[in-house]
Each structure stands twice: as C-alpha cells, then as structure tokens.
Design a protein that fits this description.
EcsC, 10 helices, globular, mainly alpha
Length: about 250
C-alpha cells in the first residue's frame, strides 16, 4: 500500500530540511571546536589511539554480527506511514531503555559509569537493526550493516565529517557497489575518534557524584532521540531514491 499523498508530502518536506542540515558548512564554532579536539587528540600517544580503535572495532563488530540474530525479518507489504508509526514506537522504547541504563550507571560513580559505554553502544546499534528491518532491509547483507555504521556517523560526528558521510550515502544503491567486501577495511579510526569527541563532554558529567544519575538518563535519552531522527531520514532518503529509480524504468519493466 503506498503512503497517503498527505503523509508523503510531509515526509518529503522533513527530508528536504534534513538534507539541507546535513550539507551545511561547518560554522566558525564547529571549526574551532574540531580544531581544539584535534589538538587534544594529537597529545594522545599513537598506541592509545590504536588500542581504543581496536577496542571499539571489536565491540561494534560483536554487536553487528550478534544483533542480527535477534532482529526481526524485514517487514514487507506495509505502507511507509504504517512502517514509520511502528518505528516511532521502537525509538520511544529504546529512548526509555537508554535513559534507564544511563540513570543506573550514572548513579554508580566512575567505575559503573565506564560500563555505560558498551551498554549504550549496544542499545544504539540494536535500535538501528530494528529500524532497518521495519523499513524492509535485511541486515544479513554486510553492506546494510555498513549503512548502519554510516547512519551512526551521521548522528555522532562533527559537522564537517557529517557532510562527508552524507555524500557517501547519496545514491546508496550505486555507492554500495564500491564498498570493499571486508568490514575490516572500514575507517574505524575516524569512526571512534568522531564518536568519542562528540559524546565525551556530555558523558564525563555522568561520572560526577550526585548529578551522575539524572545527567546519564537525560543524555542517553537525547542521544537515542538524535539517532532515531537521523536514521528515519537516512532511510527516507533511500525510499525517495528507490521511488525515483522505479519511476524512471521503462513501462514494460
């Protein structure tokens, strides 16, 4: 069933505004913040960077190859409006789950706060797996899992990096044919550094006694909200491109 004209128009308008946001040049503040963060990163020994990259790579690969076994099969024969109604419910569920997790680890001080990182990462990736299935995509396909990593980067990167990643996602059906067959060739270093830089300040406050619990709950809730919004528009972009592709086919195909 096709989406109603009214809903389709609403989706296209929201998508257009999101695309403009993704393509914005970094502001002066963005550039200064990025420059400062890069300067701080330059003081970190290469061995530490390599260790963090390897840890995050293994952590995400474990979730990527584990979560697919607990993800529903791709949805079929459903309108975009119906799919997105179900998706909004899943986003709300994961926002509340992440908030509860952040509150618990935030109340536990520094050591328990460290556990928040892998737990929250798992919740975020599981949301993306569920959303992919609801939009009708199979995460059994390695290239669909790479698309999830791109969405993750869009949500949690600097404006400059976000713009670069977005351009890699436009016309994804053609872009994915250029992907290497091995996920080890993914740019894990940039991925972990951008993600770390994006959430460092917010998550550090979670480790402060007394305020850690409420800060952890609010920050996690907001992070899942941002990820859900980003993922919806990333899949809307593919929906729009796929429709354009179908409409351009000769009538007999």
């Amino acid at each position: 069933m096709p989406p109603s004209p009214t809903y389709e128009a609403k989706v296209l308008q929201e998508l257009h505004l999101w695309q403009q946001e993704m393509l914005k040049d970094p502001s002066l503040l963005n550039r200064l913040s990025r420059s400062m963060q890069q300067k701080l990163n330059s003081y970190i020994p290469e061995k530490v960077h390599s260790a963090i990259t390897a840890t995050i790579k293994q952590m995400i690969r474990a979730v990527l190859f584990g979560a697919k076994h607990t993800t529903a099969k791709p949805a079929v024969h459903s309108s975009l409006e119906a799919r997105e109604a179900a998706i909004l419910e899943r986003i709300e569920f994961y926002k509340k789950t992440a908030a509860a997790e952040g509150g618990i680890t935030g109340a536990g001080g520094f050591l328990l706060g460290l556990a928040d990182f892998p737990l929250l990462l798992g919740i975020k990736l599981k949301l993306l797996f569920d959303m992919a299935a609801l939009y009708g995509y199979s995460v059994d396909d390695y290239k669909e899992r790479v698309y999830l990593l791109h969405i993750f980067q869009l949500a949690f990167s600097s404006q400059q990096q976000r713009r670069e990643v977005y351009l890699q996602m436009v016309d994804w059906e053609a872009q994915k044919q250029l992907l290497p067959e091995d996920i080890h060739q993914f740019d894990w270093r940039t991925f972990q550094q951008e993600y770390r830089d994006y959430i460092d300040l917010a998550k550090l406050a979670q480790m402060i006694p007394i305020i850690g619990a409420p800060v952890g709950a609010v920050v996690n809730y907001k992070l899942l909200q941002k990820l859900g919004h980003t993922a919806m528009n990333a899949y809307r972009l593919r929906w729009k491109e796929n429709n354009a592709l179908k409409n351009s086919l000769p009538p007999h195909l």
